[in-house]
Fold this sequence. Notes:
Layout: H1 3-22, E1 27-35, E2 38-45, E3 51-55, H2 69-74, E4 89-91, E5 96-99, E6 115-116, E7 121-127, E8 130-135, E9 140-145, E10 152-153, E11 158-162
Amino acid sequence: xxxxxxxxxxxxxxxxxxxxxxxxxxxxxxxxxxxxxxxxxxxxxxxxxxxxxxxxxxxxxxxxxxxxxxxxxxxxxxxxxxxxxxxxxxxxxxxxxxxxxxxxxxxxxxxxxxxxxxxxxxxxxxxxxxxxxxxxxxxxxxxxxxxxxxxxxxxxxxxxxxx
Length: 163
């Protein structure tokens, strides 16, 4: 691989680190194929603050690990109360994009203070072009909505609190 390819790989890895921060993700993993025997595997993680790069045609350049500082620098300190540990937390059953209403311009499925019954649709998570209705796991009152319409969520991320 030429030095020019290494420079574009570094720019690509930096863009992944920025994407990780902008979308509040904990990990990204990408495989880029340049040809039959020439690939680039990149994993950027916020949890362990790990950046791994593997290239099959040539060893990974030492400067490719520089983006590790970007996710770590903007990681906030642990909040005093973790919403995911709340007993009434409703967590995401999948990775996807959250939609709070059935279609743009329609009223939201739920709002803070609203009573919900078990099985009522709380929101939709789009995953792989499929709209998945997320039901209320129990009856109660929506106390907090922890995500915004159009936000990306990960598996296990707290969505709202129902008490």
